[in-house]
User: What shape does this take?
Amino acid sequence: MSGKFITIEGTEGVGKSTNLAFIKDRMLAKGLDVVVTREPGGTPVAEELREILLANREERFDATAELLIVFAARAQHFNNVILPAIEQGSWVLCDRFTDATFAYQGYGRGLSLESIATLENLVQGNIQPDLTFFLDIDVELGLRRANARGKLDRFEQEKSYFFNNVRQGYQQRIKQFPQRFCTIDAGQTLVNVQKDIALALDKFIDSHQ
Ligand code: TMP
Assistant: This one.
């Protein structure tokens, strides 16, 4: 039996961590064997690459270099963690995956979507998430929440113009792959956000168990 691959996406300050924990607990309560992981990161090498990507620095970070490091981390994580877990029958719950690359590096940084698709194919072949939660929030509201958390990383320091492009990028991905995306209005109260997540998650689990 092969497992399932669930991802969670969104712009900054959308409540990803809180809701990731909620999804994980609900999956465990359903008796699933769950592997929780994240991108960029998820293995020691990939976590080192994450630090390189997120650190604030003087040197201008070239967008193509950023893209290649994102995919270097992904290759390490995908082949060492994600793929073996799915093949073993585990359910992988991943905080961000390649939709984030299309949204941030493609629509945010303006890199070629075709090049991203080529790297995607090189690293993960035709494997895609089975279900993707997109937590959607007004960019300004999300940035206010992220700012309230304290010190900002290199991505969080971008302006709302960048994140509006990222959000549009996600919306394009949703149009392209409507069957695997579940959009959640993350501007609601947490209780209502989690009500919506639970409904979609239970439906997905019940139809795949
Ligand atoms: P996080 O704050 O959600 O853990 O993600 C770290 C940052 O990495 C976030 O600002 C988005 C960015 N990112 C990309 O730019 N491209 C990617 O492919 C991924 C997975 C994350």
Notes: Residues 16, 39-40, 70, 96, 100-101, 104-105, 155 surround thymidine-5'-phosphate (CB under 6 Å).
